[in-house]
């Protein structure tokens, strides 16, 4: 009789099966196939004799063009991460420290509203803002501040602006969680001992929020390097990043093997970043449990 | 969440008391370091100014979409010259856009059902099934959220090519389900973890069988979390781009793909109207979410 609950608990475990099957068939199998395809000379369904090869990876390693593409992707990711951190930190701090519940709810709405707007729509909004005849240039010109329109898009600046807007909510939510866990009494103690708010922030709050900074940065970087829509539209088809190159290999060249190899590179980088992100956040919540 | 505001009053009151004390504190110090006090006030103003600028940065693009959608000129004009609904009329009269909108709603509806059933049952198994390696299972189920969605699309596309199945609707829905399941798992787990197990025990002690306990106690209590996840799954599927990019077939494209193809060549008000419609849809959803479970429960990253 006393064993009955334990057995029933295990019965509930079977509810994992539908999802396990879905992930096996539509997630792990496809990614496994992608890994295999990246090592084959051709499509085994169409071509009769395919062999294993490392030439797709060799091509990425040998041709400086692909290094440049990867470096552009990383550079855009880094700038996006830095800007998202600079913009996201003040807002996250405010959200974590605001006392009124209604105020907190409004801030949360403001952060979530962009998140719930599709990336194509948001990229379009930035095109309307940043283009030569866009809102910003029209306003600046009518005010007589500039004579020539500023080049705000069709370059990496435009891509970074658009990506920051898309991924800054992830930074804010990650940071808010970590800053909210910092014991406010530590800040009060510092101020009572005569530290200015700035010094309290720099010497107490900022160091304690470092795990959040790290986790948020890892997440935003991982998301930014895998973006497709924003780099292609705000880059005006001029700037090549890894996801754009991957899609181009499929749509223009139908080179599945090479696309798979590029995909594996992106997957590996993202995987490392996501594991690191989970590790950092896991340690933060672990520390909290210990206290 | 708005309704819960009054319950915050005692906290605010105590804060006012705190800051009142703080104020008398600074007034005592005033004679000693007046400059420092000014610096503090300027610091506070700078803090609010920076945050206001960030909020403008976050929300202005959304506002601009509406300005553009309602402005009668066929190109971007700022400040706007008037208000008209002609772009909305053009959007709703366009066969391509209407077809895409209908298809997107269809895909999102099927995806929502799939993601909810799969995700909620998985969350139940994780929270109650004593699964070995539950943390790894959760990490796996949340991974489609963080691994590049474009790779999920690419990998599925390659698989469908190898299996020679073409680009079927179920293939697209499977991709969408993968990237929306994490939301359902997360919201359902959040509710299950805050769940008072004694309620189930009470039902059992009062003589209800396991089935009856599940349907009359567990399910109603978990419903808000599942519902929040379902609404989220709907909106994420409706806005989904990278997975769809590889998996839609020409002729039956989702709205984000149609918008994207349109954006490549044109930047007129129709796209503003289309964007406004999908933003309004998202807002209805956010309000729905807030009314059902409150926003806090699912934003824990």
From TrEMBL, chain A:
One of its GO terms (cellular component) is plasma membrane. Pfam families: BPD_transp_1. InterPro entries: MetI-like, MetI-like_sf. Keywords: Cell membrane, Membrane, Transmembrane, Transmembrane helix, Transport. Belongs to the binding-protein-dependent transport system permease family. CysTW subfamily. The chain crosses the membrane at residues 12-40, 69-92, 104-129, 159-180, 201-222, 228-247, 254-277. GO terms for biological process: transmembrane transport. It is a multi-pass membrane protein. It is found in: Cell membrane. PANTHER family: ABC TRANSPORTER PERMEASE PROTEIN, INNER MEMBRANE ABC TRANSPORTER PERMEASE PROTEIN YDCU-RELATED-RELATED. Residues 70-277 form the ABC transmembrane type-1 domain. PROSITE patterns: ABC_TM1 (PS50928). This is ABC transporter permease. Its main location: membrane. The keyword Transmembrane applies. It comes from the Bacteria.
């Amino acid at each position: 009789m006393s064993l009955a609950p334990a057995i029933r608990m295990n019965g509930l475990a079977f509810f994992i099966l539908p999802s396990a099957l879905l992930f096996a068939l539509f997630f792990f199998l496809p990614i496994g196939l992608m890994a295999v395809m990246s090592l084959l000379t051709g499509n085994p369904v169409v071509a009769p004799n395919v062999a294993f090869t490392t030439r797709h990876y060799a091509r990425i390693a040998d041709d400086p063009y692909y290094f440049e593409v990867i470096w552009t992707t990383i550079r855009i990711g880094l700038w996006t991460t830095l800007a998202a951190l600079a913009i996201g930190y003040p807002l996250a701090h405010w959200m974590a420290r605001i006392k009124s519940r209604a105020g907190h709810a409004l801030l949360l709405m403001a952060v979530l509203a962009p998140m719930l707007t599709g990336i194509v729509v948001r990229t379009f909004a930035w095109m309307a803002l940043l283009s030569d005849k866009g809102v910003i240039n029209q306003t600046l010109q009518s005010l007589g501040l500039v004579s020539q329109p500023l080049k705000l898009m069709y370059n990496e600046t435009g891509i970074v602006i658009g990506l920051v807007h898309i991924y800054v909510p992830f930074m804010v939510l990650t940071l808010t969680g970590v800053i909210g866990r910092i014991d406010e009494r530590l800040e009060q103690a510092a101020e009572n001992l005569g530290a200015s708010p700035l010094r309290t922030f720099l010497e107490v709050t900022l160091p304690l929020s470092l795990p959040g900074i790290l986790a948020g940065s890892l997440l935003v970087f991982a998301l930014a390097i895998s973006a497709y829509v924003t780099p292609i539209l705000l880059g005006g088809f001029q700037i090549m990043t890894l996801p754009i190159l991957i899609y181009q290999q499929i749509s223009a060249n139908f080179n599945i093997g090479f696309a798979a190899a590029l995909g594996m590179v992106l997957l590996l980088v993202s995987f490392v970043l996501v594991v690191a992100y989970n590790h950092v956040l896991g340690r933060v919540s672990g520390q909290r449990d210990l206290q | 969440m708005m309704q819960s505001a009054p319950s915050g009053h005692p906290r605010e009151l105590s804060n006012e008391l705190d800051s009142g004390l703080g104020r008398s504190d600074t007034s005592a110090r005033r004679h000693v370091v007046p400059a420092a006090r000014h610096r503090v006030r300027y610091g506070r103003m700078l803090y609010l100014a920076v945050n206001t600028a960030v909020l403008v940065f976050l929300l202005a693009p959304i506002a601009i979409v509406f300005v553009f959608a309602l402005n009668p000129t066929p190109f971007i004009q700022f400040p706007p010259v008037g208000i008209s609904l002609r772009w909305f009329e053009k959007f709703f009269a366009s066969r391509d856009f209407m077809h895409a909108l209908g298809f997107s709603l269809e895909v999102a509806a099927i995806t929502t059902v799939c993601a909810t059933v799969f995700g909620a049952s998985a969350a139940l198994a994780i929270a109650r099934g004593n699964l070995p390696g539950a943390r790894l299972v959760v990490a796996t189920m949340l991974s489609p959220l963080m691994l590049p969605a474009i790779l999920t699309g690419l990998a599925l596309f390659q698989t469908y090519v190898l299996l020679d199945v073409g680009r079927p609707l179920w293939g697209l829905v499977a991709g969408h389900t993968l990237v929306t399941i994490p939301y359902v798992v997360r919201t359902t787990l959040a509710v299950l973890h805050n769940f008072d197990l004694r309620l189930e025990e009470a039902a059992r002690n009062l003589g209800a069988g396991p089935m009856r306990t599940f349907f009359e106690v567990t399910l109603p209590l978990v419903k808000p979390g599942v519902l929040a996840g379902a609404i989220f799954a709907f909106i994420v599927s409706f806005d989904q781009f990278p997975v769809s990019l590889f998996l839609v077939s020409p002729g039956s494209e989702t709205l984000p793909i149609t918008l994207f193809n349109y954006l490549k060549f044109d930047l007129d008000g129709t796209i503003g109207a289309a964007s406004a419609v999908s933003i309004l849809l998202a807002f209805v959803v956010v309000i729905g979410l807030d009314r059902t479970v409150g926003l806090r429960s699912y934003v824990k990253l």
